[in-house]
């Protein structure tokens, strides 16, 4: 409602370094996700990463201690959930100890593929972190495990983790695989493309891919197995600049005759959301940059 500055809300996260409960952490991560989407392609990204890493490090160490150096599973359900949050957030924001740990576990698995040493609760967080930190070898191993997986939940974790790569060539290859039903099942194609789009390194690749292949997807997949609505909202979630808005308008103009089928509402919503995002970034970016920078002692020059 613009009655108080956004940084007032951000200030409530400053106590997280003392917080070990699941609910406050989950709420904070859910809400910080919007800041991530809006600002992770800007100069705010680095100070924001540093700040969240600083806040999550005590939680990471708390669980390291609670689980006797990651050998046990917390007893409380909410602790099990927060255990995953701690690992995923610490690795994502670049805590070296976390990245070393997940890469070590993943390497153990690569050395003995028949025995996966990673606890099921932590698998997605570990896979994602290892694929992001790794190269083609880790990606190919994850791909082969995905192709062989017989348990649906395991296949799903591996499928989403493949989209965590920071290598554009691998992400491009993965996107292309969605056009081939023998590689990625038709009903999984949307999930793969939106997962790539949710990766900071993959968002523009996924959007270009959808634009390039829209007609093919639209005619080939029809309305049945393909969730066009979630596809559109997934690839446009980060849209927050006038250039993004123009690309979206061009896309709508180009395909207006064929229509958007089940995605018609999603396209309209994407347009509204992009306009709202542009306004939000314009109003808040400098202030948010200043705030994150001041919290980490990394005072950036404010223009």
From TrEMBL:
Residues 2-275 form the ERAP1-like C-terminal domain. InterPro entries: ERAP1-like_C_dom, Peptidase_M1_aminopeptidases. Pfam families: ERAP1_C. Belongs to the peptidase M1 family. PANTHER family: AMINOPEPTIDASE (PTHR11533:SF271), PROTEASE M1 ZINC METALLOPROTEASE (PTHR11533). This is ERAP1-like C-terminal domain-containing protein. It comes from Ilyodon furcidens (goldbreast splitfin).
């Amino acid at each position: 409602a613009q009655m108080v500055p956004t940084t007032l809300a951000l200030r409530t996260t400053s106590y997280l370094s003392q917080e070990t409960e699941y609910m406050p952490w989950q709420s904070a991560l859910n809400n910080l996700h919007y800041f991530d989407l809006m600002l992770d392609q800007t100069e705010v990204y680095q100070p924001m990463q540093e700040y969240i890493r600083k806040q999550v490090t005590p939680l990471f160490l708390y669980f390291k201690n609670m689980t006797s150096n990651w050998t046990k599973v917390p007893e409380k359900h909410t602790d099990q959930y927060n255990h995953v949050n701690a690992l995923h957030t610490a690795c994502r924001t670049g805590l070296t100890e976390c990245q070393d740990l997940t890469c070590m576990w993943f390497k153990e698995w690569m050395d003995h593929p028949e025995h996966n040493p990673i606890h099921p609760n932590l698998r997605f967080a570990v896979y994602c972190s290892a694929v992001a930190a790794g190269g083609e070898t880790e990606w190919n191993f994850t791909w082969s495990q995905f192709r062989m997986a017989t348990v649906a939940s395991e296949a799903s974790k591996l499928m989403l983790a493949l989209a965590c790569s920071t290598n554009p060539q691998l992400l491009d290859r993965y996107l292309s695989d969605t056009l081939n039903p023998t590689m990625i099942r038709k009903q999984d194609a949307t999930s793969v493309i939106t997962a790539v789009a949710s990766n900071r390194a993959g968002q523009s690749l996924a959007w270009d891919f959808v634009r390039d292949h829209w007609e093919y997807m639209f005619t080939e997949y029809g309305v049945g197995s393909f969730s066009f609505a979630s596809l559109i909202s997934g690839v446009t979630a980060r849209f927050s600049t006038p250039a993004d808005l123009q690309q979206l308008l061009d896309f709508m103009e180009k395909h207006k005759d064929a229509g958007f089928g089940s995605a018609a509402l999603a396209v309209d919503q994407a347009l509204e959301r992009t306009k709202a995002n542009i306004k939000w970034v314009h109003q808040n970016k400098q202030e948010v940059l200043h705030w994150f920078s001041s919290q980490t002692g990394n005072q950036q020059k404010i223009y």
